[in-house]
Design goal:
Layout: H1 2-19, E1 28-41, E2 61-76, E3 79-92, E4 100-114, E5 117-130, E6 152-166, E7 171-186, E8 191-206, E9 210-226, E10 233-250, E11 254-267, E12 275-286, E13 292-304, E14 309-324, E15 336-351, E16 356-375, E17 378-391, E18 402-415
Antiparallel strand pairs: 1-2, 1-18, 2-3, 3-4, 4-5, 5-6, 6-7, 7-8, 8-9, 9-10, 10-11, 11-12, 12-13, 13-14, 14-15, 15-16, 16-17, 17-18
Length: about 450
């Protein structure tokens, strides 16, 4: 079975290479995308160091990850489409029984629906074995989330839509929709199922250097956990939130944001309690000609679909992706860059049956990568990652405390390099929106923030 899987991966890689032999300079292009990594970790299964006969062993491992895929882009004067698929194979040196495959298919599109409005949509599907090493996210991803330890299989579906309408030069209106589902099954037979379907609307009023915004959002959420030899834990609810924010540009490179609001969890099950919690956040962002960096401090209330639990989280995160000055004459196309995330988060569980905030988890993470671009579309990377997750004894869940250190060497690329059309980057913290990608231009080289395959 293992040999068949490996042959399937190699056959897929060869087929994709033959399909994408030529990129068309007209309205569409076809590309081979992919990466290969060698990874060493001191805690393969993300488990506590103390032995437990009911859990996988605590041990180190060297393994290899192959991720071949294909990317198709299509562009017209008013639309851009990116369609991608890749398969991820994890090949373990000593634990051949743990070899795994993961599939990921995605579609992103951009539409200029009128001279004053634009629409972005996306759909993503993935399935396979949950890899807690999270190597799909870049080192500068800047997010922390409690994840179960051990080995789990999963299915994930995520669909989103965002509409922007420029009513006047100073006023922009936004509308969004999102539907997502995440299910897991671990080695102990515990199953989780989280579903969220929601919509949002907002208004943003800008002045020369400042902007104020109001955002309203509501979603239907259902969370279910089924543990072996335990009763079903499930709840249905409506989450509603209102947030007011203020942004300010400080020169051409620095911007800031503060926001505050309230989130309510309205139970739909008889006997559950209404939960109302304040939220607050602050950010500082640095936006040079190439790259980005920022500091975010935030208190947020949201369902964790990995755990099928409501959580309230307090976090402080620094993230950056910045160029290094060596080996290049063009500052907009650096050969060397550094990425990193440093953060801490306290995540507590919300018991909707009583309305109480229970104990939960502490997460500490450090992630740094140095990237080298020898050719357009090809990137070499050396990355080190430290993750510590501490679960309170009274958390009452099978999610475990663990510490994991990981070192990765990776090569990734896209051939041919040039895209016929790239979905433009529209989200921006800056009031002047100077870092928004102009429509009709490729967002960045494959190795740049916002670019890639």
């Amino acid at each position: 079975m293992v040999g068949v899987r490996l042959r399937d991966v190699l056959a897929t890689s060869l087929s994709l290479a033959l399909v994408s032999g030529t990129a068309h300079a007209g309205g569409y292009s076809v590309h081979v995308i992919g990466s290969a990594q060698s990874i060493w970790t001191d805690n393969l299964y993300s488990v506590p160091e103390s032995p437990d006969p009911d859990r996988p062993p605590y041990e180190s491992e060297l393994y290899h990850q192959l991720r071949p895929g294909v990317l198709v882009t299509y562009e017209t004067p008013r639309t851009v489409h990116n369609l991608s698929y890749d398969i991820e194979a994890n090949v373990y040196t000593d634990h051949t029984e743990a070899w795994s495959l993961q599939h990921l298919a995605g579609w992103r599109a951009f539409f200029m629906t009128s001279p004053r409005s634009e629409l972005g949509v996306s759909a993503l599907f993935s399935t396979g074995d949950l890899n807690a090493l999270a190597t799909r996210q870049t080192a500068s991803d800047g997010t922390l989330i409690v994840q179960p330890g051990g080995s789990s299989s999963f299915v994930s579906i995520d669909v989103g839509e965002n509409l922007q309408y420029t009513a006047t030069r100073e006023l922009r209106l936004t509308q969004g929709f999102r539907a997502r589902r995440f299910t897991t099954t671990d080695g102990l037979g515990t199953e989780t199922d989280g579903i969220e379907i929601g919509a949002s609307g907002g208004a943003d009023r800008s002045w020369q250097y400042s902007a104020a915004a109001l955002q309203l959002a509501s979603s239907y959420v259902t969370l279910e956990r089924v543990a072996e030899m335990a009763p079903v834990d499930a709840n249905d609810q409506i989450n509603a939130s209102a947030t007011v924010s203020w942004r300010r540009d400080f020169g051409p490179r620095w911007s800031s944001l503060i926001d505050g609001g309230v989130t309510s969890i309205v139970p739909l099950d008889e006997g559950d309690q209404l939960v109302i919690q304040p939220t607050i956040g602050a950010q500082v962002g640095y936006f040079p000609n190439w790259g980005t960096a920022g500091l975010s401090i935030r208190r947020a209330v949201a369902p964790n679909l990995y755990l099928a639990q409501n959580t309230i989280s307090d976090s402080a995160i620094v993230n950056a992706w910045l160029p290094l000055p060596w080996l290049t004459d063009d500052p907009l196309r650096p050969k060397l860059s550094v990425q990193g995330t440093l953060g801490a988060q306290r995540s507590r569980l919300i018991d909707t049956s009583t309305g109480d905030i229970e104990s939960g988890f502490d997460i500490f993470a450090g992630d740094v990568a140095v990237n080298y671009v020898p050719l357009d579309g090809v990137t070499l990377s050396l990355r080190a990652q430290h993750l510590r997750q501490n679960a309170d004894e009274s958390a009452g869940m099978e999610v475990l405390s663990y510490v994991r250190n990981t070192v990765m060497i990776m090569v990734m690329g896209r051939f041919p390099d040039r895209l016929a059309g790239e979905v433009p980057l529209r989200a921006s913290m800056r009031v002047d929106r100077s870092n928004v990608t102009p429509v009709g231009e490729e967002s960045a080289p494959a190795e740049a923030p916002g670019g890639g395959s």
